[in-house]
Specification:
Blueprint: H1 4-15, H2 18-33, H3 40-65, H4 72-84, H5 91-107, E1 109-110, E2 113-114, H6 118-130, H7 143-156, H8 160-180, H9 187-193, H10 196-202, H11 214-234, H12 242-262
Helix pairs in contact: 2-4, 2-7, 3-4, 3-5, 4-5, 4-6, 5-6, 6-12, 7-10, 8-9, 8-11, 11-12
């Protein structure tokens, strides 16, 4: 039987793996926030979404790779969708969105990685195609907890530059806009912090955010903030879902970072 020191060492090694840290922190958010977002039925929606995500990924992995596996990345994707979509969403959306996310992960790839954040791309496509606005963002119910856990996630997977670049850029753009329009500037930092779940969980998704050094992470974070700010300012048909479009634009920066390593 391993002693206490060995057990602590085993836990520490596991927590250094981002694919263990992230789902654990997402599950903590689910358990902390579900009572304020519909109670037990919310846990039912989480179970449906994550089961659909994991099942679809397992089927697609077998078709594409001829391997039987249960992927932690599919669990992460399912939990992210769960914490963004309204728990009261109709059942077809709870099943379709995570399944489509896994399909995009297997089909839209470059350099052996998905090009776009699967959860984000799926929600964007389904919501645009159907006109359903199923966003609830209940992962951000407790901003302080989302920020605390998110900082741990970003640090663990070495994406703090990306998160901080996004938050700082969004706050700076909001502050600049408030100064130009002679409006009170107090809300600039509040706006940035209100995106804690997005900034420290979705922006830093390991497979679709830059793994390269900090210049690419800074460019990535700034791009996401710029598109989000422009989308909120312009809205309309061009930016029906600014948060999703901002992250998808940032994913293109990640793709450029990969291509630059090959050139």
């Amino acid at each position: 039987m391993p002693d206490g020191g060995a057990a602590i060492g085993w836990i520490a090694r596991k927590l250094r793996d981002p694919y263990n840290v992230m789902p654990l922190c997402l599950l903590i958010l689910v358990l902390a926030d579900f009572q304020q977002n519909g109670g037990l039925p919310s846990l039912g929606s989480v179970a449906i979404i994550t089961a659909s995500s994991v099942a679809a990924d397992s089927i697609l992995a077998y078709v594409r790779l001829k391997r039987k596996l249960v992927s932690v990345t599919a669990l992460i994707s399912g939990l992210i969708v769960s914490l963004v979509m309204s728990p009261q969403s109709p059942l077809p959306f709870l099943v379709l969105v995570p399944a489509l996310a896994q399909l995009s992960k297997h089909l839209i790839r470059a350099d052996n990685s998905p090009v776009f954040n699967p959860a984000t791309l799926s929600m964007f496509l389904v919501f645009v195609a159907t006109g359903y606005r199923g966003e609830a963002w209940w992962g951000n119910t407790n901003v302080a907890l989302a920020l605390l856990l998110g900082l741990f996630v970003s640090y663990s997977i070495r994406r703090l530059y990306a998160s901080f670049a996004f938050v700082a850029s969004l706050a700076a753009l909001a502050l600049l806009a408030s100064l130009i329009s002679a409006q009170p500037a107090a809300g600039a930092l509040a706006l940035a912090l209100s995106q804690a779940f997005f900034a420290f969980f979705m922006v830093v998704e390991p497979r679709t955010s830059p793994q390269a050094g900090y210049p690419w992470q800074l460019a990535y974070g700034f791009t996401v903030a710029l598109v989000l700010f422009a989308g909120n300012a312009l809205g309309g048909a061009l930016f029906p879902f600014p948060v999703f479009e901002a992250l998808l634009a940032g994913n293109l920066v990640t793709l450029l970072s990969r291509l630059s390593k090959k050139s």
